[in-house]
Amino acid sequence: MHEPSNEPPHPVLTRRHFLTDATAAAAALYGVAALSPGAAPAAAQVSGPQAKPKWDMSWVERLTSPHRAVFDSPEIAGGDALGHVMTVRGGYKEVYGPDTDFQAVLVMRASGVRLAFNDTLWQKYKLNDQLKIPGNGNPHLSMLAMLQNNGVILLACNLAATWYAQQMAVQAGADVRATVEEVRINLAPGVTLMPSGIFATIRAQEAGCQLLKSS
Predict the structure, then answer these.
(1) Structural domain tally of the chain?
(2) What are phi and psi of 213, to 5 degrees?
(3) What average pLDDT does the structure give for the chain?
(4) Burial of 134 (0-12, 13-18, 19+ CB in 10 A)
(5) What is the CATH number of the domain that holds 75?
(6) Does pTM surpass 0.70?
(7) pLDDT of 15-25, one tens digit each?
(8) What is the C-alpha separation between 210 and 87, in angstroms, rounded?
(9) How many angstroms separate the Cα of 192 from the Cα of each of 12, 83, 106?
């Protein structure tokens, strides 16, 4: 998991603890028991479909155009990935005609997952100050809305969202599990959480998307 060098994690949220903490928080969020050393496998404790979190994979079935791409956004980088989507989409329509069907998947992961946070989170946890981005709220929400209105599939990394939820909770002196839930319900409209950003990127490629890494 790549973390910005100018945002050192709280001592209890170091890389050594990240996978354990993120797994536990995600497990609490989705009602799945996290495993500790020596614990019995989850499958032995719970049977049936309730043993696994349910992820909305319906977006894969929507990828039917011969022209489709996945844009991997591991950084905020001024919202470059959002602009790349529109640039590529515009190029296809300019070359092949305005009715050309170009489909795009935008994956917001690692540091870039905060592109998917709405104004409630940006304002409450002072993300503009932390990220040194002018304004009072997520400046990329209108572009995300435009992308969604044009059929772009918006995906966000649950592992990264959980990581940043923990950081924000510690910095604000808030309950970690409550903050994880708060992040989940305060994503930008149309954003779908995936188990991880790299999973979403690979799955999109399996569905025939060309990969462009935007950073």
Answers:
(1) 1
(2) -90, 120
(3) 83
(4) exposed
(5) 3.40.1260.10
(6) yes
(7) 444 444 454 44
(8) 15
(9) 28, 20, 10
